[in-house]
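Tip: read the tokens left to right.
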């Protein structure tokens, strides 16, 4: 029923459905990021629209990179009970700063080692358990 909607669908911890509109620019950035990760880290896999069970329901990372060990442990589970090593969010105009900050926290709490936040104005913020690691201009676009 929902699979043909042009939205990304997530669930809150209360079971409420959240739908985010898709844009072609978002998809272009997502494709470039996936290609870059795949070429630089072939020992794992890139996952687009990666569903992750968090403390606030199911969240969907725009792009994730998972090691071979992660994939061996969790295989084809949906959603993953733990976040892959790298989760990336591409900020859409409909995203608030609070929403993105919460997703960063949730992914890190659920096991991600790094979370990348990519803005359409060509900058990238990298977060780890130590906090903000970098805020740089990116050539992914």
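Filled-in amino acids:
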């Amino acid at each position: 029923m929902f699979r043909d909607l042009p939205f990304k669908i997530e669930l809150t911890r209360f079971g409420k459905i959240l739908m985010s509109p898709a844009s072609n620019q978002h998809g272009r950035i997502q494709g470039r990021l996936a290609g870059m990760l795949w070429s630089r880290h072939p020992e794992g896999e890139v996952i687009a629209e990666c569903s992750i069970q968090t403390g606030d329901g199911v969240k969907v990372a725009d792009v994730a990179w998972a090691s071979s060990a992660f994939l061996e442990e969790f295989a084809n589970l949906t959603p993953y009970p733990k976040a892959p090593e790298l989760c990336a969010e591409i900020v859409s105009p409909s995203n608030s700063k609070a929403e993105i900050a919460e997703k960063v926290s949730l992914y890190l709490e659920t096991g991600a080692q790094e979370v990348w936040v990519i803005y359409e104005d060509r900058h990238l913020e990298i977060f780890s358990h130590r906090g903000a690691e970098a805020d740089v201009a990116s050539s992914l676009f």
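The helical segments are 24-40, 68-74, 97-109. Residues 91 and 119 are 5 Å apart (CA to CA).
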